Amino acid sequence: MPQKWRSRPRHGKGPAGGPAKRTQEKSSRAQDLTKTIAELARNKQLKRAIATFHKFEEEGLQPSVYTFSSLINAYVRAADVPGALEVMSAMKRHGIKPNVSIFTILLKGYSQEGKMNAARALLDEMIAQGVAPDARAVNAFFRGCLYHGDVPLASDVFSKMESSWQLVPDSISLRYVVQLLSQGLRVSAIKELMKKLQKANPLTEHGGGKTMGRQACKFWASGTCTKGVNCKFHHDLEASPESQERMQQEKVAAMAAMNLSMAHAAAMLGRWPLCRRALKCAEDFYESTEEGGQGGVGSHGLFQELSREEASREIQRISHFLNQEQPPEPYSFLCRTFLFGTEPCTEKAELAQCCVDELVRSFGLGEVLLRVGLSEEDARTSFRLCLSKKLRLRGSQIFAPELHGKRKIESDPPLPMKMEICSGNGDWVIAQAKADEGLANWMALELRHDRVHQIFSRMVFRKACNLCLLRGDAGRVVPAHVQPESMSHVFINFPEPPHFSGDETAESKSELLTGSFFSQLHTILQQDGKLTILSDNWRYVRRLVRTLAELRDENEQMFLSAGPRNAKNAELCETLYGIDLFCGMPDKHVGHKKKTTSYFDRLWTKGQHLDRYYFMVQKA
Fold first, then answer.
1. Cβ atoms 225, 235 nearer than 8 A
2. Low-confidence ranges of the chain (pLDDT < 50)
3. How many domains does the structure of the chain reveal?
């Protein structure tokens, strides 16, 4: 590696011990600094990571590719992809070539921002620079496609894996792609991929087609090789029976997950025999894993256990819908699903077209239209009616009874409107909407496409006709598309802190709950409208209280504490800046009418995060 980063001239007598010892000390110091940057990156401490990196030049040390990789990761975790790209450019200027790990980190960064075309271009750049994508890099791309619902891009990369990159899709790749296809109701394509996985034999495809002579993989023997069929080295099957068993278990688990995705798509289309067959296969697997007690240790084991439990919940949910055998009616619910893109629209017709295109691309609207005998123009007409001239959502039209492309009848008088922001998979908002039938209408706003689809399926299966779905960045959707003074109550459950500890020094450009965003909520709330926030993070919830309390409009507080003083399942912990902060579970007095748990609630409970904190404020 070219020695571009040389130490500055030093005067005076150097440390005793000779050049070899000094070189060893420098190497050890460089490794320690690299480890520090990596730890700061995990904690989203970008400024401190940059300051630590500057010590390499100050102390005359040579940063390695791992040092740059850690710094790039710090930028990405702080949602600063442009900064990460500048670091990679600087790294190239100093003669250090980016490796597959750095490209994978950047793929994650683009995925977080929803820039999947840029992520796709980055894969081509890897190939052009002689860096072959591995399964981990491609799976990072597929995960981004899943988060943003980009079925065409995922299909394009999947087709190139074997044909152009000599990369065999692993079980994770197949699961991601099948989940995307399930959301798009592409049953035939799912069947083809399931056949592909059934034919694959991970025990005979060891080492893939790129085996380098008879050189053995040193990681395989210890059971730590993560390359699988794409490993360039020889896998001796007799040397590691544990790895054989693990690979076979991964294949069976992937097939079960794919069957569950198939069952979901078949249920949406009312294809009951196919749904039953797929559901039975998935159910058999998850029942066997519960009996066998399969799982890991520590946090990974807890996550595996929760994943099995969530799959069982999904099986029960589909089974309940299946047993009713009532023809699904997804079209009317699709007309209340607004998938806002990353690029703003300026005209009503343009936005309606974008909503329809997104639903066709990733929610299977085309298939649904064929089944109900309607056209895309009917769908566009429906969406245009739901938008004002300023592209604001018109609740009276969205929740009117007449659909299918015809003019809707405005409800009179309008029901109160409530909203949950960061809705996750929708368990909580569906329960509240069902409890509020005939009393209030609801909107659920979520950034990740896969979670929006989970909410959508729950909305269809539970027939939650008073719920509207919004996909997009809340910081953009709320000011651009929600009517001012239209919300009676806004809820935010388990918001993600800039850092998991709620550390004040953690940084993230993607942080949502800022003073600016709370000002936007103030605008959309009716007079005396309420805002309730629930969290398991004491430090972070206190930080949010302070942010709200500091907001002023002409020297008047924008939000005031709204109690409650009669909470049954909680106690008043603290009054901070005039806002009452409670410890315990929220109830109907703060708008939580239906007692239920969300995915995040179950996740934190698994990790023994049992304390809950909440507060409610009202528009002053």
1. yes
2. 1-14, 203-213, 297, 403-405, 407, 411, 500-502
3. 1
Strand partners, 615: 533
Question: Does the residue 366 lie in any domain?
Answer: no
Asked if residue 490 is part of any domain, the answer here is: no
Q: Domain limits at 252?
A: 170-201+247-328
SS3 92: helix
- Reported as half-sphere exposure (CB side, CA atoms, 13 A), residue 491 has a value of 24
Q: What is the mean pLDDT of the chain?
A: 85
The 8 Å CB, 24+ separation contacts for 188-194 are 190/258, 190/261, 190/262, 190/265, 191/262, 193/258, 194/255, 194/258, 194/259, 194/262
DSSP 397-421: HHT-S--TTSPPPPPSSPPPEEEEE
Q: 108: closest CA among 67, 80, 66? A: 80
Q: Which residues pair with 216 in a beta bridge?
A: 234
- Alpha carbon dihedral 260, 262, 264, 266, in 10-degree steps, equals -150
Cis peptide before 273 (omega within 30 of 0): no
Q: What is the pLDDT of residue 529?
A: 96
DSSP per position, 417-460:
EEEEES-TTSHHHHHHHHHTTTT-EEEEEES-HHHHHHHHHHHH
**Can you tell me whether residue 216 is helix, strand or coil?**
strand
- Tell me what pLDDT residue 2 has: 35
In a domain, 187, yes or no: yes
Does residue 582 contact residue 573 with C-beta atoms inside 8 Å?
yes
Structure tokens at 321: 């819908």
Tens of pLDDT along 393-428?
999 999 987 544 454 555 467 899 999 999 999 999
Residue 186 lies in a domain: yes
Q: Quick: pLDDT tens for 107-123.
A: 999 998 889 999 999 99
Look at residue 479 and give its three-state secondary structure: helix
Parallel/antiparallel/unpaired status of strands 525-535 and 613-619 = antiparallel
